[in-house]
């Protein structure tokens, strides 16, 4: 009797299950439904991912990695290993993977009754393993199984790469010749990435932005301990560089590079220059070693075995794409998979897509319209790494971990595959912990009460389903962490209405246990499947109603009025990430001092001080030289620029190791303004106060220019000056400085003044030197020559010895020369022999540090005279600072200081304004000086502060020691600077000659010769004028292309650049590609260029030719506007006139690859301007050129039928 009752009960349960399957219900509820036959995941873990060749697994073979993984699976699964019937492993690189899997499983203690095999579907191997096992379980072939992926590229990548290369060569050429797509199947992955970037419009900045965000998310997740949920520690051995073996425990992924920025990624060279320039090692996935595993079974089996259920396997599918763009597989497979189950992307909460290359990931994100917040929330393969066969399983493990911690219902792990296809799966996360369940924000309006956990609004409701005890996270945690299963607690009273019923009925199980609520913090669990502890107090759930009291309403109102839209957006992002965005963060961003001072350590002090002392020994004498010999101001004003400017920059600058100070080019330009004022009769040669005031005005105007540009966010201005312009001008400045210094080095100053050549051009001075060289003062010449030779010899010795003996950089050769020459001059009284000496070093005002605001009405004439020169000093200074900052990058010791061109402008502008108030020389960042700072131990901006303090002490106590310093020594030091400005010119000249860059060489020659033969002002004017003309010419020329089809394919390419490939031209169609945004600047010649294409089929034909293309050849115009990412009003007007003209002539107009979203601003302009209506409606805006061609054939056939019917009626 009991047996009959049992059978009837089981049959009723089964019938009820079938009825639920057949009953009409929404697709979402079908996915969420729980049935005995569901395939579920009960355990999901992975090892750390380590770097190939140098990571923690570099000395661990594949079978040992698998053994470590299966040991952890066996220890955590909590069931008899005899129940495991099958183990499926994804692996790509090892041909013997199946044998190694079998050996590792037996070694781990799984009995020989299990079966195992490996599967190779390239990058989709891990997902294929999980899919194969799920299908086997669903058809009752297997009851319990393990799906895993493992890869040891360190020990097989060389052999694997050779096999791949050989396989491509071994394919029968007769097969490849049958079609272009067959030949494309042999393309390497890097090539396909560049194809996507080039053909589908994914540019380098977008790829670098995506990669930087991947690193940022992974860094944040690792910092907050989120990966501890999924990673299991692995004990292994590593051989050190000394041959000694060390036992290590691996717990962290090694591919994450903290502090990765877009600017840093932009500097990385292309990885595949033979195919393109956008794919780099920085925006591609990293090869890694590692493994991951899933324990899978049916829901009914899980209940019987008391297993926690992490997720329900819903389904998977595959879809193919063209081999040359195989990475976009997810854009086809994901919609296909969702449609099979009646779901939409909006109902997915987490989407894990493999980031093999940023080009693929960016295109998939944009093409599918994915919410970037849902896509790879903890970063992807670019940051974490890509162990080929492991990645598919790793995506599931990470996705389930996110589903456990964050508000989540469903996730899609997605992989592109070289097959080529996309392989996708849907998992429904139905695990979690009573007494509460969580629904996503799209459902929260139906809840009686909401709470906020810093990541999004969530609702808490009671789960009355007592039958699914295997779904309890308490059971899960007990099974996997050695604890006894817990009993459900009652629903908190605050979450029920007055009748005691639940606040809501729509529910999914909780991703966070009740112990994570305030006052019930769970103990910190180190590792395991989705460890339940909050990573920090800020991640715990807090009530929405627990805000400030009403008495603080006025504070909230004031903050709301002060906050901008961007600030509000930043606050929302911070809340979603789980932390609070405070005003101190803004302050630390805009005043970096508050960022780095908190990170400063006592151990940095010695390096910063030594580097500052070394720089002072080099550059303080140089500052005296620049002020005295080039700027013609009292020498102390050169020292002032090392007192104020480095100090201010240390507070506001965003490059920790850059040091600002006066430069030769800027000092020479200041000197030119001083000379012009003397020539115009505003003062005499000895009017030190006037010269100092002019210096302050020039520095102040340069600082104000840079400051205003920074506030206006004009950080891109450093791109205005081309490399040839800078090389020509800087070389000319070096030549002018060298010629200028020859006069005092020969002791001919007085004679030059008498003959009126002191303020002449370089040619005049050269003529003077050749005519009067026999009158040179021999002691002065000897001191100059010896000083110059000693400095040059020391400079060359340092350059050659530094790689082997880094400490030589600390030798203060210039300071020793200055000190030795001053001592010898004082002892031997060279001044009595006619050698000019520096004399008393004092301020032009008579006192130290006299404050004089540069922008006074009394200085208005100086301001007018110095306007253009100050602008150029600002431009040159910022350009050199930008180059230095980008070359130095961030510091290893100071984190969170992101290089910003706009903030650099503000820092340099404020520094120069402060320095100008004390009449100092203009000061900007210099690469050579900053490199010395870094190589001598400088770790932080504190080295700049020390440099300022040392300069201050030198002014206060050491100025009398400079009295006997010979001026020829200062001149020789300036000559060395001039040499350094000129010595790079031959390299650039030879480069441009090699690439036949005659335009660049001509620009260099014009600037160089005009500066030498006439003046600096003329060289500046010509250089800037020519550079601006070139920029305007480039930006105003439309770069439209006529497209032809590659025979046998649906691909279209530029016919003018690929004529040798025999492209096909479609009869009656003109296909025109517009590869750039349309603005007022580049649409001026658009009509003329289109007209030339209509007449001749090419833009290279001379307009004097008679018409070549017939009118019938232009019956249909197809515009490929994928590159038109934006369009302004003027461009829209011109395009409307073009379309109207075509339609009036009876020409059909189509637009392909336009904005996919009707909310796009470009679409709004096309619609409002009437272009859409003129073309014939939205049907004339199609997805690709091939579809447009089909529409032309259709409309032509309709037209022919209409003509035929009219003829029949007649």
From TrEMBL:
Annotated pathway: Lipid metabolism; fatty acid metabolism
A Gene Ontology annotation in the biological process aspect, one of them, is:
phenylacetate catabolic process
Renumbered to this chain, the signal peptide range is: 1-17
The protein depicted here goes by the name Sulfate transporter
- Where found, per UniProt? Membrane
Family classification = Belongs to the thiolase-like superfamily. Thiolase family.
InterPro entries, per the entry = SLC26A/SulP_dom (IPR011547), STAS_dom (IPR002645), STAS_dom_sf (IPR036513), Thiolase (IPR002155), Thiolase-like (IPR016039), Thiolase-like_sf_Thiolase (IPR050215), Thiolase_C (IPR020617), Thiolase_CS (IPR020613)
């Amino acid at each position: 009797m009991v047996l009959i009752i049992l059978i009837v009960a089981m049959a009723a349960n089964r019938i009820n299950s079938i009825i639920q399957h057949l009953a009409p219900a929404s697709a979402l509820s079908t996915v969420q439904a729980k049935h005995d036959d569901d395939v579920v995941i009960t355990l999901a873990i992975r090892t750390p991912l380590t770097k190939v060749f140098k990571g923690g697994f570099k000395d661990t073979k594949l079978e040992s990695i698998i053994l470590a993984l299966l040991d952890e699976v066996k220890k955590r699964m909590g069931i008899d290993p005899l129940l495991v019937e099958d183990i499926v492993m994804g692996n790509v690189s090892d041909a013997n993977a199946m044998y190694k899997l079998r050996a590792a499983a037996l070694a781990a203690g799984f009995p020989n009754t299990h079966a195992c095999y490996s599967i190779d579907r390239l990058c989709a191997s891990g997902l294929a393993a999980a899919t194969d096992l799920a299908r086997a379980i669903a058809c009752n072939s297997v009851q319990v199984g393990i799906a895993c992926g493992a890869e040891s590229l360190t020990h097989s990548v060389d052999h694997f790469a050779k096999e791949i290369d050989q396989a491509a060569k071994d394919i029968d050429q007769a097969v490849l010749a049958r079609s272009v797509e067959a030949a494309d199947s042999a393309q390497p992955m890097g090539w396909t990435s560049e194809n996507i970037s080039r053909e589908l419009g994914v540019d380098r900045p977008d790829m670098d932005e995506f990669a930087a965000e991947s690193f940022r998310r992974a860094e944040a997740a690792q910092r907050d301990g989120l990966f501890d949920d999924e990673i299991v520690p692995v004990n292994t051995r590593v051989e050190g560089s000394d041959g000694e073996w060390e036992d290590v425990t691996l717990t962290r992924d090694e591919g994450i590079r903290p502090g990765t920025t877009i600017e840093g990624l932009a500097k990385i060279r292309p990885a595949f220059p033979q195919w393109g320039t956008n794919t780099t090692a920085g925006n591609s996935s990293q090869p890694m070693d590692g493994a991951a595993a899933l324990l899978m079974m049916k829901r009914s089996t899980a209940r019987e075995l008391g297993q926690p259920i992490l997720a329900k396997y819903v389904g998977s599918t595959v879809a193919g794409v063209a081999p040359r763009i195989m990475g976009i597989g997810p854009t086809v497979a994901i919609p296909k998979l969702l449609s099979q189950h009646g779901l939409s992307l909006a109902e997915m909460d987490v989407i894990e897509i493999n980031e093999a290359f940023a080009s693929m990931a960016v295109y998939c994100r944009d093409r599918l319209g994915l919410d970037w917040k849902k896509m790879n929330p903890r970063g992807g393969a670019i940051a974490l790494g890509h162990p080929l066969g492991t990645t598919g399983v790793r995506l599931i493990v990470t996705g389930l971990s996110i589903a456990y911690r964050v508000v989540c219902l469903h996730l899609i792990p997605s992989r592109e595959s070289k097959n080529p296809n996309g392989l996708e799966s849907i998992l429904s996360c139905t695990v979690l912990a009573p007494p509460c369940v969580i629904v996503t924000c799209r459902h929260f309006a139906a809840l009686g009460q909401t709470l906020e956990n810093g990541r999004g609004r969530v609702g808490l409701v009671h789960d009355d389903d007592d039958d699914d005890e295997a779904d309890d996270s308490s059971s899960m945690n007990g099974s996997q962490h050695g604890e006894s299963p817990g009993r459900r607690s009652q629903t908190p009273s605050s979450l029920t209405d007055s009748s005691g019923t639940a606040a809501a009925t729509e529910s999914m199980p909780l991703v966070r246990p009740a112990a994570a609520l305030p006052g019930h913090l769970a103990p910190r669990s180190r590792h395991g499947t989705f460890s339940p502890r909050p990573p920090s107090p800020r991640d715990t759930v807090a009530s929405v109603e627990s805000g400030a009291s009403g008495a603080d309403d006025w504070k909230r109102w004031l903050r709301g009025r002060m906050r901008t839209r961007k600030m509000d957006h930043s606050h929302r992002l911070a809340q979603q990430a789980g932390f609070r965005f405070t005003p101190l963060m803004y302050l630390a961003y805009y005043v970096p001092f508050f960022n780095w001072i908190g990170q400063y350590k006592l151990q940095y002090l010695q390096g910063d001080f030594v580097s500052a002392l070394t720089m002072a020994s080099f550059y303080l004498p140089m500052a005296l030289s620049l002020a005295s010999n080039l700027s013609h101001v009292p020498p102390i004003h050169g020292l002032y620029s090392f007192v104020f400017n480095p100090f201010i920059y240390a507070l506001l600058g965003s490059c920790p190791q850059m040091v600002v100070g006066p430069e030769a080019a800027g000092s020479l330009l200041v000197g030119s303004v001083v000379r012009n004022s003397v020539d115009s009769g505003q003062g005499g040669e000895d009017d030190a106060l006037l010269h100092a005031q002019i210096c302050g005005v020039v520095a102040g105007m340069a600082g104000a220019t840079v400051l205003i540009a920074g506030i206006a966010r004009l950080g891109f201005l450093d791109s205005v000056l081309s490399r040839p312009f800078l090389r020509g001008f800087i070389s000319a400045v070096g030549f002018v400085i060298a010629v200028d210094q020859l006069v005092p080095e020969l002791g001919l100053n007085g004679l030059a003044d008498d003959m009126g050549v002191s303020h002449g051009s370089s040619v005049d001075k050269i003529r003077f030197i050749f005519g009067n060289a026999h009158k040179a003062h021999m002691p002065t010449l000897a001191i100059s020559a010896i000083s110059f030779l000693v400095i040059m010899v020391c400079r060359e010795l340092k350059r050659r010895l530094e790689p082997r003996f880094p400490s030589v950089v600390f030798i203060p050769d210039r300071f020793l020369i200055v000190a030795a020459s001053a001592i010898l001059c004082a002892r031997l009284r060279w001044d009595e022999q006619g050698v000019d000496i520096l004399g008393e070093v004092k301020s032009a005002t008579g006192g130290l540090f006299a404050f004089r605001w540069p922008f006074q009405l009394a200085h208005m004439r100086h301001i007018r005279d110095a306007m253009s020169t100050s602008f150029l000093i600002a431009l040159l200074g910022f350009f050199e600072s930008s180059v230095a900052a980008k070359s130095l990058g961030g510091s290893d010791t100071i984190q969170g200081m992101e290089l910003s061109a706009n903030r650099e402008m503000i820092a340099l502008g404020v520094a120069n304004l402060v320095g100008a108030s004390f009449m100092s020389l203009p000061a900007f960042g210099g690469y050579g000086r900053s490199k010395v700072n870094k190589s001598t131990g400088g770790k932080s901006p504190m080295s700049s502060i020390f440099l300022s303090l040392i300069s201050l002490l030198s002014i206060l106590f050491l100025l009398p020691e400079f009295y006997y310093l010979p001026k020829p020594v200062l001149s020789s030091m300036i000559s060395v600077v001039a040499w350094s400005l000129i010595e790079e010119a031959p390299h650039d000249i030879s480069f441009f000659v090699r690439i036949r860059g005659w335009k660049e060489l001509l620009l260099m020659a014009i600037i160089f010769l005009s500066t030498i033969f006439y003046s600096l002002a003329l060289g500046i004017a010509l250089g800037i004028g020519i550079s601006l003309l070139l920029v305007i010419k480039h930006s105003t020329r439309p770069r439209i292309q006529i497209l032809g089809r590659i025979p046998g394919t649906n691909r279209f390419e530029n016919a003018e650049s690929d004529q040798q490939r025999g492209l096909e031209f479609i009869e009656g169609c003109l296909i025109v590609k517009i590869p750039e945004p349309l603005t007022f600047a580049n649409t001026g010649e658009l009509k003329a260029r289109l007209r030339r294409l209509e007449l001749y089929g090419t833009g290279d034909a001379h307009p004097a030719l008679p018409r070549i293309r017939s009118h019938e050849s232009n019956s249909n115009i197809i515009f490929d506007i994928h590159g038109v990412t934006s369009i302004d009003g003027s461009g829209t007007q011109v395009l409307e006139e073009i379309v109207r003209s075509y339609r009036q002539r009876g020409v059909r107009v189509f637009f392909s690859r336009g904005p996919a979203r009707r909310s796009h601003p470009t679409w709004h302009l096309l619609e409002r301007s009437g272009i859409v209506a003129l073309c014939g409606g939205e049907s004339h805006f199609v997805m690709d050129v091939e579809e447009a061609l089909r529409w032309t054939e259709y409309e032509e056939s309709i037209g022919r039928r209409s003509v035929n019917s009219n003829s029949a009626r007649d």
